[in-house]
Prior knowledge:
The protein has helices at residues 77-89, 104-117, 150-157, 176-184, 198-206, 228-235, 252-262, 304-315, 319-326, 328-333; strands spanning 4-8, 11-14, 17-19, 22-27, 30-36, 45-48, 53-56, 58-63, 65-66, 69-70, 92-100, 122-128, 164-169, 188-191, 211-212, 240-244, 266-269, 284-286, 289-291, 297-300, 350-353, 359-364, 367-368. The chain is an alpha/beta fold. It folds into 2 domains: 4-56 and 340-368, Urease, subunit C, domain 1 (Roll), CATH 2.30.40; 58-333, Metal-dependent hydrolases (TIM Barrel). Substrate binds at residues 139, 217-218, 225, 249, 297-299. Belongs to the metallo-dependent hydrolases superfamily. NagA family. GO terms for molecular function: metal ion binding; N-acetylglucosamine-6-phosphate deacetylase activity.
Amino acid sequence: MKSKTAYINGIIYTEYQRYEQHALLIDDDKVAGIVPQDAVPESYVTVDVEGANICPGLIDLQIYGTGQDLFSADLTKDSIARIEQQLLQQGCTAFNLTLATNTLDVFREAITVYKEAAPKVSMGLHLEGPFLNPIKRGAHPAELIKKASIGLLSDVLEGNEEWVTMMTIAPEVNDQECIDYLIERGILVSAGHSAATYKEATLAFDHGVRTVTHLWNAMSPLHHRDVGLPGAAFNHDEVCASIIADGVHVDFEAIRISKEMMGERLFLITDAVGACEKGIYKHVLNGDHFVLPDGTLSGSAMTMLGSVRNCVQKVGIPLDEALRMAILYPARLMDRHDIGNLNSGSIANVLFFDNEYQVKRVLFQGEQVV
């Protein structure tokens, strides 16, 4: 039997609209609409959310793990399930499960496990590497970084295009035919861990690279004689960029400048990892971020809702726009119109949070999971 619920007495944010004194209608697993509170149909059960903010579920296009789980170090269905459940608790209802540079065997095994798990919260895998520029490798092992070829790409991806939704590469050290190969298979190509010049980056953007991975981190600098990858992203009309709003990976003033330059093309990711003592990536929690044993910055400990809070409180971005950076813009980049909004007919992934940015309630496909 289908359930019909009207959520009242909240402030509703969806795309470019903000509603007060309205009700969010959920019919089973879909959004049925937003109506004035005095126009809720009699067939709906009302739930008073007591002033909470209501928005679509948050979307993270780059996350490797949570808590004590790092997918690349525990390639199991149980690991994926735990990560999904932890993210739902945080209000993140869609994400790209990410693997950093590793052996191709690990990538193949990860894809196999992911297919078997058939996760519902994760939208697909984001392979960050191994086709990067070693001089901007960051925490990625230099010995595992490779130059892409059609043979290597097809070896990993052939028949798995449905499961790999995104790949980060360094465009200046990889041939255009390899980028074309990925694009033709519907994979979102992002420029990252790259020493690209302004001209190299712009050329890549003009030929199908649609976004940039963690702006400012592990890339050519914004120099006054060559503004590099950041400058190319700023000056391009269409390319997007993700940014880590933890105040550690990127200073909040740099986020403010980036937002002024890129507007709606800038979106949030957590780049979050899980604590790990085995495998290639041994992530050690260092206060509010993770490092490798040698101290190299390796990942964040952020949540998406914490990123929204930082954008509002530390950067001065209005709440409605900070939410779009965490919801609408990544959904748009992934060409997903059934999530990231509260339009009638969209999947009922909904976050309710208070003014202290604490999760109060989460709906996933219409079912309350928090």
